[in-house]
Amino acid sequence: MKIILRHKALFVIVSITLSLIVACEKKYFVKPPGPKVAVQTTALEATYVSTAPLTLSDSYWKNADYLKVSVGNLNKNALYSNGYLNMTGTYGGTSSFNAGGDPKLTMKAAYDDSKLYIYVEWVDNNLDATNALATLLGASDPLKSDTTGQWTSQGNSDKMAIAFDLNNSSSSEGTFVDKGCAASCHQGKMQPAAGSVDIWSWDVATTDALGYAADMVTDANKGLVKDTGNAMVTSNKKVPGNPRSQPAYEWSGVDQSFTRPDGKTTLLDAGYYLLNTTATTNITPFIGDYHKGDLVYHNSVYGCGHCHGDEGGGDGPSGSATPFAAVGFAKKYSRASLISFASSGNHEGNTYWSQVPAASVNDLIAYIKGLGGVPGVLLSPPSGSHADVWSVSNVTRSRINVTPHTLYQVILVRKLNTGNADDVQFTTPEGKSYPFGIALMNADGKNHIGSLKQMLTFKLK
Ligand code: HEC
Question: How many whole angstroms separate alpha carbon 272 and alpha carbon 205?
Fold first, then answer.
């Protein structure tokens, strides 16, 4: 009985205390705000932050307000010149991009005392990371009648570009302030009739690998050119500018390690990227006469085609073997490692290999590498004003995985004020707005979809 009473007393005391606390809370404490909920906005609103949101996993991006950009056709039905094939995946505009599916283009932004951060996300159902791959006997292009015998430049990469008015640009369509990007389009080219436009051009096969978007400029006189500084992309064709030229360089077999401007080091997949820096030896001249290699490959006694297929497809009269005609084959084998595998006991065709005359080995490898394709461009660290825009993305560059791709996530980072004449400046931007345009390209560099004009607004601190 006593015990029960005591319990009751305790219960009463606890209840009174609790109700007092609750009462106190009601009276004296204001309910703390819940976590910020992301809100859709009509402009791209950059919020002031004190910590740079430099990674995709940064909590800022999780609940930052966002702009949904509905996309339309910006340019369509354009083709490349003879010898460039399968490079226009956005040929029909919105009906080609994702086969007509909405890319769900979404943007977020932030700024701190020194930099602007723009987050861009869009759905692209297939990751295209080749750019004018030098290919022997490559695929024909359903949109073109070019012949495909011998070398062609095959495939184009996915791209995204943002444009800002730099200097009162205009075209027959109007001014940038009124019409956005339409001001930079003139006679079918990215070129205003007057003034100039700042363009940040992100490319999965080139700029993103190094951690940048290419900082470029277009004006009435010169058209679209890179900003001043060392180029990050150069042709890897023996005859630069000729899409039917053989490659100039191939991967040497040395791992392609590169430190990006955000300080992170990345390995670059040699099937898709060729790194050309003064400090490393990742590339070596492409040697051998592929014409002669063709004859060795098809030799009636020891030709590789017996098992690897007539044109490297992987099925021959004497058996089936790994297809050589596959993009990315180049990443597995440098010349030295190809020789060492083909001559080893692990290779079913090693008795064929052992009959190949030593003097023909390089010719044969030139042919085999050509079937798989050699990256069409070389990548070098950019410098100067060309290197102003950094990129952080969700692309796994060490091993390009084409199949499970759905979404691109990219953060572009730029100083508010670069001090360079070929850049738009956001000096003391607080409270100001800037018109911009945005374009997406799926395996293309000419046709694009996107939005001509959106507004970037720097919110008050
Ligand atoms: C008798 C059939 C046959 C012939 C002929 C043949 N191979 Fe192979 N090769 C294979 C098979 C099967 C494989 C798959 C790996 C294995 O089991 O050996 C292969 C794999 C390879 C690979 C590795 C490919 C990869 O992606 O891993 C190379 C390189 C190669 N062969 C080179 C050659 C060369 C060069 C010749 C011509 C001199 C040649 N092979 C002739 C059957 C053959």
Answer: 7
Residue 253 CA: distances (Å) to CA of 21, 144, 268, 270, 274:
71, 35, 12, 8, 11
The whole-angstrom separation of Cα 24 and Cα 445 is: 65
Give the whole-angstrom CA distance, residue 117 versus residue 415: 9
**Both ends of the chain: CA-CA distance in Å?**
66
Helix%, strand%, coil% for the chain, nearest 5: 20, 30, 50
CA of 364 to the centre of ligand 1 (A): 13
Q: What is the four-CA torsion angle of 14, 15, 18, 22, rounded to 10 degrees? A: -170
H-assigned helices in 166-287: 176-179, 207-210
**pLDDT at residue 18, rounded to an integer:** 44
How far does the centroid of ligand 1 lie from the alpha carbon of residue 366, in Å? 16
Give the whole-angstrom CA distance, residue 235 versus residue 156: 14
Q: Do you know the residue count of the chain? A: 461
Q: What is the Rg, in whole angstroms, of the alpha carbon atoms belonging to the chain? A: 28
pLDDT band at 12 (very low <50, low <70, confident <90, very high): very low
The structure's pTM equals: 0.90
Please give the structure tokens belonging to residue 432. Answer: 């100001």
User: For ligand 1, which residues put their CB under 6 angstroms from it?
Assistant: 302, 304, 306-308, 318-319, 321-322, 332-333, 338, 341-342, 346-349, 352-353, 356
Segment among 109-123, 155-169, 191-205, 310-324 with least mean pLDDT: 310-324
Q: Tokens 């058209």 belong to which residue? A: 223
- Rounded to whole angstroms, the Cα distance separating 443 from 451 reads 18
pLDDT tens figures, 53-77: 999 999 999 999 999 999 999 999 9
Q: Rounded to a whole number, what is the largest CA-CA distance in the chain? A: 107
Beta pairing partners, 265: 259
Domains by residue range for the chain, with CATH = 40-230+385-458 (2.60.40.1190), 290-372 (1.10.760)
The count of other CB atoms within 10 Å of the CB of residue 21 is 10
Residues in contact with 22: Cβ distance below 8 Å, sequence separation at least 6, in sequence order: none
Calpha distance 328→308 (Å, rounded): 16
Which percentage of the chain shows pLDDT scores above 70?
A: 92
Residue type (1 letter), 308: H
Nearest CA to ligand 1 atom 34: 304
The two tokens of residue 447 are: 């046709």
